[in-house]
Amino acid sequence: VQEALMPELSTVAIITLLLVLAAEFVNGWTDAPNSIAPIVSTRSLSMRNAVILAAVMNVLGAMSGTAVAATIGKGIVKPEVIDLSTVAAAMTGIIIWSSAAYRYGLPTSESHALVAGLAGAGLATAGPSVLLWAGWQKVLIGIGFSTFLGFGLGLFLTSAIVWVFRPLRIGLARTLFGRLQFLSTAFMAFSHGSNDGQKFMGVFALGLLMAGVFSEFQIPFWVILLASGTMGLGTAFGGWRIIRTMGMRLTKMEAHQGFAATTSAGFAIQLATFYGIPLSTTHTIGTAIMGVGATRGLSAVRWGVGRQVVTAWILTFPVCGAIAWVTAKILDMVF
Known about the structure:
The chain is mainly alpha-helical. Helix content is about 80%, strand content about 0%. Helix 4 packs antiparallel against helix 7 (about 135-165) and helix 8 crosses helix 9. It is elongated. The two termini are about 15 Å apart.
């Protein structure tokens, strides 16, 4: 009987792992472009070069550690009471929701999509006891980091730059911050990879554990390379609609403001990564851009666009959770 079932189990494992990589690709395609939206909108770097910069730095960031990966892989739901179908259902929710939102140019949080998908599929598989409060505490802390820290740092840093560099001529200031923005964008892309890129490494490692490849949860270097490379490939395909929404429609930015937005978001993300906190990099750069725009007055931010973006963020939890729950129930009946 076991020998008869092995081909089926191998097929389920392969499909699940491919879905994890597909979700990581979507992450690079729809989420990573947020890091380069400011520099493209200020015309300090061309779209092509910005995409290359983001792809390279995202990969390097994803290879920089595994603390966030461990939180996602074994801290959101109990690994011992779910199965490969649960993971596959969670990835399905992410892929469907994020692809649909991209169609309308709305940036989504793959972080929230991931934890919502794991929760929805886990609840369908094992009930409420599957959820781990310690991991969800970090998720809630991450929401605070991305919302308030992103906005506050963006507001503060932009105000400080205007005050310190006011004596400079406008042309000189634009040249200076156009160059500095290259560094801040690289830092933001690296930060994105160090937090977002790690999440799907954790899920991939979880899938390998359930498939019997590992006897205990671990993240070997080849998993890091595979996941980070997949995300970098997704970023290389670009995401013009997301860049347009975040970099051009939300508020108009000059070079110093783009520098402030990416620097603020990068610092907030790095702080969260250090403590193994999974946060939404989309939320973080989005609120940082709003904070930057607010320095010119509330009217400088297109709050109608902001409302659309926030609505997509809010819907991510219930929609991804529901899709994952339904998918898990279907897979449970099939397998």
